[in-house]
Amino acid sequence: MTDHPSLQPYADAWTHSIEAISELVTPLVEGEWNHATECPGWSVRDVVSHIIGSECEMLGDPRPIHSLPRDLFHLKDDLSRRIEVQVDVRRCHTAPEMTSELEYTIIRRSRQLRNEKRDPSTKVTTPLGVEMTLERALRTRAFDVWVHEQDLRRALGKPGNLDSPGAYVARDVLLEGLPKVVAKDAGAPPNTAVVFDVSGPVEFMRTVRVDGEGRGTVDGSVSLGPAVTVATDWETYLRLACGRVRPSAVRDDVKIEGDRELADAILAHFSVTP
């Protein structure tokens, strides 16, 4: 247990997801580590490398000194290049090396979380190179690890844990991005309401309201006569919001009612993750 109750739910969600990842990848044969995931340019090995590297940085380990190849065309900006260093440095690692490092990293991070005595408001530097409070950083790690657990499950054809503790952390993180998607990115007119109706293992309905000044907010109240209603299942919502698929690829899984042009603009800007 950490010293601060506000951190415990994120530590628990992180633990559940990272242990599930370990169980998923430990029995894999060498070739299965090369299966492509929905993360552009990343294999199963690359996703696990990213997780290991991120947790090592949270432990305070120095970042690897490593020059990236020039032919990694999925890298679009400085942030993606920063993230890729921890991935590319492990691309030559064997399956036993990967599982051993993952197991050791989980042991170290679990011990750190159990002994965490810092105040939740303490500022820490995250693997993305930005500073945030310890509480938000742990929330972000719980979110990231659960999302990547789902990436691995889809790549390996082993679905599960769509309603685990990390799923609810992910729901809340993704919902925070909705007002910007609707009001700013999609340009919904002032005094507009847009409803998102999500079914499945994690079920919820939320309304984004754009006020007269063009500012968006999200709440759980029902809106009468919204401009748009977007209905889909939880896994499709997750994949869209995390940029794993384009809207055209899951069109049959998303039901739209109302202003189709606005709905298309919302879906075009739906990805809220880096």
Tell me what the structure shows.
GO terms for molecular function: isomerase activity; metal ion binding. This is Maleylpyruvate isomerase family mycothiol-dependent enzyme. The chain has 274 residues and is of the alpha+beta class. The protein has 2 domains: 167 residues, Up-down Bundle (Four Helix Bundle (Hemerythrin (Met), subunit A)), CATH 1.20.120.450; 92 residues, Nonspecific Lipid-transfer Protein, Chain A (2-Layer Sandwich). It is built from 9 helices and 7 strands; from the N terminus they run H-H-H-H-E-E-H-H-H-E-E-E-E-H-E-H. The protein has a 5-stranded mixed β-sheet with strand order 5-4-3-6-7. The protein has a two-stranded antiparallel sheet with strand order 1-2. Strand 4 and strand 5 form a beta hairpin. Helix 5 packs across helix 6. The radius of gyration is 19 Å and the shape is globular.
CATH fold-level name of the largest domain? Four Helix Bundle (Hemerythrin (Met), subunit A)
Q: Helix tally?
A: 9
Give, in order, the helices and strands.
HHHHEEHHHEEEEHEH
The main β sheet shows up as:
5 strands, mixed
Spatial extent as radius of gyration: 19 Å
Total domains, how many? 2
CATH architecture descriptor name of the largest domain: Up-down Bundle
- Tell me the name of the CATH homologous superfamily of the largest domain: dinb family like domain
Q: Summarize the amount of helix as a percent range.
A: 40-55%
Structural class: alpha+beta
Low-confidence spans: pLDDT under 50, at least 5 residues? Answer: none
Numbering strands along the chain, what is their spatial order in the largest sheet?
5-4-3-6-7
**DSSP strand count:** 7
Report the β-strand fraction as a percent range.
5-15%
Mean pLDDT, to the nearest integer, reads: 96
Domain Mycothiol-dependent maleylpyruvate isomerase metal-binding: 15-153
GO molecular function, one term: metal ion binding
Organism: Streptomyces taklimakanensis
Domain MDMPI C-terminal: 169-264
